Amino acid sequence: MAEDNVRGLILAVSSSVFIGTSFILKKKGLRRAAASGTRAGYGGYTYLLEPLWWAGMTLMFVGEAANFVAYAYAPAVLVTPLGALSIIISAVLAHFMLKERLSKLGVLGCVSCIVGSVVIVLHAPQEETPTSVQQIWDLASQPAFLIYVVASISIVAVLILHLEPRYGLSNVLVYLGICSLIGSLTVVSIKAIGIAIKLTLEGTNQLIFPQTWFFMTVGAACVITQLNYLNKALDTFNAAIVSPIYYVMFTTLTIIASAIMFKDWSGQDASSIASEICGFITVLTGTIILHATREQEQTSNSDLRANAGSANWYSGGESQKLGEEEHLITLHNTDYFD
């Protein structure tokens, strides 16, 4: 593996550890905030007063910073799928800290994520790094990438203006769709900024070009939007559901955006590309398994809570008439009520 890819790999793994932990701390902070004020899902901002939420945000910023630098060294095809590690970390921590049980099938999902990530790492392409921000601007001005940008912004506008007021609190895909589409644009902007800063530190000043500042502005706007809707998703839905779905959508769209703009797969043979796709599918399968088991566990717990605390009392004769449609406590001697 190339030296730059190794650096990107180490940074991406570190990023996943920080981000996975941040999900749990932010969730605990949002829970505390909801107990004392308006929930974030309903437009509240009391979570800004919670130290745990800020601790989670700090870890997320550290993780995103590591991720930011990773994109300057390695292609998105390598860096982005490694976000699966953050799902594993958040699922394990949710099991112990949030009492969201991780089943054996969920463990299988985690293992699938790890296996798929290893396959992707072993077959990751060696990217040709642009030598100036002007080259990156030329890549961003390609008709194919401009079509992707226009399509993404249009879908986000529909989600925010039309679907969020109606389905935002009942369908997790609304919030996460916004996060993922904006996130894919965040990644390509951050990659451009990272390369510009790297070239500047190496002696070729890129801060004199207006394109660098344009990428910074777009990246900042995308990050703010992304965090806002991610907070809403975490406050409204189970963390073990948000994490894997967000990963699947965000990773898929990011790889598509990066492949269009930076041509990550150009120069690779068919077998390497096929191996990367198989590894990615394995990771997706693991996240889907993890999501399905967590959702099933949540539904089972809800059913148990709904049925708990109620019992019907009948004498022996009455219980025989009602059959087995209800759970009954039968008294064979009614003298207990005398």
Description of the molecule:
With 338 residues, the chain is an all-alpha fold. It contains 12 helices and 2 strands; from the N terminus they run αααααααααααβαβ. It has helices at 3-36, 51-73, 76-79, 84-97, 104-122, 133-140, 143-167, 172-201, 210-236, 239-262, 270-307, 316-322; strands at 312-315, 328-331. Strands 1-2 form a two-stranded parallel ribbon. Helix 12 links the parallel strand 1 and strand 2 (328-331). Helix 1 (3-36) packs antiparallel against helix 2 and helix 10 (239-262) runs antiparallel to helix 11 (270-307). The protein starts with a helix and ends in a 7-residue tail after the last strand.
Strand order of the largest sheet: 1-2
Mean pLDDT: 81
The parts where pLDDT drops under 50 for at least 5 residues are: 308-338
Helical amount: over 70%
In one word, what is the shape? globular
Strand pairing plus helix content: what structural class? mainly alpha
Strand content: under 5%
Distance between the termini: 83 Å
Radius of gyration, taken over Cα atoms and rounded to an integer in Å: 24 Å
Number of strands: 2
What is the N-to-C succession of helices and strands?
Answer: HHHHHHHHHHHEHE
Major β-sheet, in short?
2 strands, parallel
The number of helical runs is 12
Write a short abstract of this structure.
The model is unreliable at about 310-338 (pLDDT under 50). α12 links the parallel β1 (about 310-315) and β2 (about 330). The protein contains 12 helices and 2 strands, in the order αααααααααααβαβ.
